[in-house]
Amino acid sequence: MTVREPNPEPNNPLGMDGIEFIEYATSQPQALGSVLQSMGFVPIARHRSREVTLYRQGTMNLIVNAHPDALPGMSAPAATPELKAIALRVRDAAFAWRRSLDLGAWEMPTRASAMELNIPGIHGVGDSLIYFVDRYRDFSIYDVDFVPLPGAESRPLALAGLHYFGIVQSILEDRTADWLEFYEQLLGFTVLPEGKFFGVMPKGTLLESPCRKFYLQLVEPPPGSEDIHWEENLLRIGLGAPDVRAATRVLKERGVIFIDHGSVQPSEKGALTQVYFGGVTFELVVSHLKPGAPGGRGQP
Amino acid sequence: MDTITLAGPLEAKLKAVRDAGFSQIMVSARDIVEHPGGEAAAIALVRQSGLRVTGFQTLRDFEGLPDHLHAYKLDIAKAMLVMCRALGSKLLVVCSSTSAHASGDPDVLARDLRKLAMLAVPLGIRVAYEALSWGKRVKEFPQAWNIVAAANRSNLGLELDSFHMLATRTELDELDLIDLQKVFLVQLSDFMWRELPSIEERINTARHFRVFPGEGLHGEEVADLVRRLDQKGYRGDYSLEVFNDDYTQLPPAFVTGRARQAVKWLTDRVSRRSLPVRRDRPRAQRSG
Question: For position A296, what pLDDT does the model report?
Answer without folding.
Answer: 39
